[in-house]
Amino acid sequence: MPKKIDHEKRKEKILQTALKVFAREGYKDSNLSLIASECNISRPTIYQYFKNKEQIYYYAVKLVTGRMFTKYADYAWTTNDPIIERIFNICSDIIDMAATHRGELTSLVDVMLQLKKEGTDFSDIILRRTVKLHILFKRLLRLGISRGEVVECDITKITSHIVILLESFGFQLAFLDAFDVEEAKDLIANYLELLNPNK
User: Fold this and answer.
1) CA–CA dist 30, 126 (Å, integer)
2) Angle at 12 between CA 55 and CA 43, to 5 degrees
3) In a domain, 199, yes or no
4) Which domain covers residue 93, as residue numbers?
5) pTM greater than 0.90 (yes/no)
6) CA distance linking residue 25 with residue 30, whole number of Å
7) Among residues 109, 123, 128, which one has the least CA distance to residue 172?
8) CATH number at residue 28
9) Tens-digit pLDDT profile for the chain (199 aa)?
10) How far is CA 107 from CA 121, 181, 195, in A?
């Protein structure tokens, strides 16, 4: 009986291998043949999953952000934590996850910078991949205001500030060895404290 292949598992293995190859060889000098070889699969097999390196990159971003948003939405609407605490816990987890997967994050950012040099604009892609986070923060802030847990504020602006801080931390984590995770969390906590009507 032929061995059943778990295609999602194989796709993730290709992804993990590709990120290692990108980090080691540089995105420009990497190719699907090298990635296939390191996965112990044939080049035609890799083409069943990805048509080029760029598609692997987009899959990586989609996979990571998709899993994160599902996790955060589940937490946000099933906990009784105060609203500001929910937002802080989500931000804190994003920072922790980025720190835990620092190598992969550096590879992804490196690929982004290399593609940017070749003329690819990522602003649209990043916006599409973070739109669910924007919506989640806006809904939480709106709920917090209605419950008196959050001061009256410009929800869109506050959400934008939080996401920009998180993006900034991601880039710093990718490139600065001296990045301090706890300091980043303190900055988020201090910012969110400004939204607390009881302070």
Assistant:
1) 23
2) 60
3) no
4) 57-193
5) no
6) 6
7) 109
8) 1.10.10.60
9) 556 777 888 888 888 888 788 777 877 788 888 999 999 998 898 989 999 888 887 887 777 777 788 899 999 999 999 999 999 999 999 999 888 878 777 777 777 777 777 777 766 767 777 888 999 999 999 999 999 999 999 999 999 999 999 989 988 988 888 899 999 999 999 999 999 998 7
10) 17, 19, 35
Residue 44 lies in a domain: yes
The answer on 146 and 66 residing in a single domain is yes
Spatial CB neighbours of 85, under 8 Å, sequence gap ≥ 6 = none
Residue 143 and residue 86 share a domain = yes
Specify whether 169 is located in the same domain as 149: yes
| CA neighbor of 114 nearest in space, from 32, 177, 30 | 30
Total domain count, the chain: 2
Same-domain status, 45 and 63: no
DSSP assignment of 48-115 equals TT-SSHHHHHHHHHHHHHHHHHHHHHHHHHH--S-HHHHHHHHHHHHHHHHHHTHHHHHHHHHHHHHH
Amino acid letter, residue 48: Q
Instruction: Write the DSSP symbol of residue 21.
Output: H
Q: Which residues contact 148 (CB under 8 A, 6 or more apart)?
A: 197
Query: Where a domain ends, among 33, 51, 69?
Result: 51
